[in-house]
Amino acid sequence: MAGSLIRRATHDAENPLEASLREAFNHQQGNLRPPFSLKSLAQEQYPRLNDAILFGILLEPRSAKTHIKLLHAIISDGYCHFTSMVTRIVDELYSKLVDSAKIQLIWVAREMVDVVSVGFDGLLVALLRQIVGGDFSEGNLWLCSEMVGVFLQKWDRLVEENPLILTYGLYVFLRILADHGSLSGDSRLNMLKKLETEFCIRVLRERFDLCLKIGRDLVRLLQDLVHIAEFKSIWKDLLFNPGEFRVNDFKSMVKIYRLKTQSLYFSLRITPEMERNLRFLLTNVKFGNQKRYQAWFAKKFLSCSERETLLVDIARFICCTCRSSSEGADILPRWAVIGWLLMSCRKSYIEANFKLALFYDWLFFCEEGDDVMRAEPAILLMANSIPKYSDITNALLEFLLILIDNYDAERKDVIVNGVLSVFHALLMNGVIDSLDVLAHSDALSPVLREMLKKLLSFMETSHTKELQ
């Protein structure tokens, strides 16, 4: 009987995926040792032998090179089945795997990059998603180190075969560097920060054309790293010397501001397990019955103070990747989850970053290219918090108005147009019936009310024909 790949308590049921792989391994034992059979495989045998080889690689590190030689010899589908099974293990089992199996997964990932297997990019994405923000445990730091090593050591192959994968790594390590940079750790953490910085700077300097594909959230991530000398230089060039990046049509930050960040990038900072639980909250839990589910989620994923930075990632994920349930009006809405997460912020800088994540698409909104539903949680949270939780409405609206004036003073006109456009789109798409709930609410402070009315007066002027 083969050993186990995962840690399991005495009374835990056997995992069906692991059980299937073990069964294949046990049945194919005779085919896994040299001399290998030269007979062609029957169609039904091929996937089972692939599964057996994979289980053997993860279970028997000393025999991994023998197993991989057999895999290379029998392959007939570009490693598609094998790579998809590795990816599935990462998505479904990674947190439960024994350490030796995790080490072997990274080894397998390197092998799949070398042979340019079908789906190797998806495998790298799956591994990147297992890097948890705000987690300084030895295992998580090890995974960070291994993955940044893969991206640096396999640079040429990645550039040649699928350069876009570099932007996925860049997004993850820019975000993780903000966490790691907050600590002055031991030599291992310092070396990790050095490697992460080396990779990010290389992508930004050598392939800025690819970096633009990340869109506006690239700027949001970079601004958290300007205290690091290498990134301060990047920031200065973005502002004052964009020609340094050698991209013909990149003349100013406005180019990046106008590029919407695609949903995949936000998924990179949410583990599959976390995503499943968030989607369950937003599709199955009735509004009013959410407290125990929220408490469980917080205990599972936000239990230590360092994990608080995850709140910002979750906010972007909910706003930009999730959609409100179509199952009925009684299902927990996104704005309510966002409100709960906002109230979970304990540190002032986390709260500020959370609000920025909530409003970020507002600042550069363009009705032709942006999705108004990304703005829905913020507007509905402000509207529905009146009158019972008007302090939330006041705080959010004040933050938005401060952003308009101060986020990028040199390009304030771009931001004003973006915010006015999002208000207009929210009205035109029926997300909110009227802005009077904000502009004429006695629950708002008089100063904020007047500032909002002044802002909205510009919208009335610029969109008069459309609103008539």
Mean model confidence by pLDDT: 93
Main sheet makeup: none
Report helical residue fraction.
55-70%
Compressed to H and E, one letter per element, the order equals: HHHHHHHHHHHHHHHHHHHHHHHHHH
- Provide a count of the helices: 26
Structural class: mainly alpha
Strand content: under 5%
Distance between the termini: 76 Å
Compute the number of structural domains: 3
So what's the overall shape? globular
* Chain oligomer state: single chain
Uncertain spans = 464-468
What is the strand tally? 0
Organism: Cuscuta australis
Domain Integrator complex subunit 3 N-terminal: 45-454
GO cellular component, one term: cytoplasm
Pfam families: Ints3_N
Give a description of the structure.
There is one protein chain. By secondary structure, this protein is mostly helical. The chain has three domains: 1-6 and 13-130; 136-259; 274-467, no CATH class. It has 26 helices and no strands. Helix 20 (348-363) crosses helix 22. The radius of gyration is 25 Å and the shape is globular. The termini are far apart.
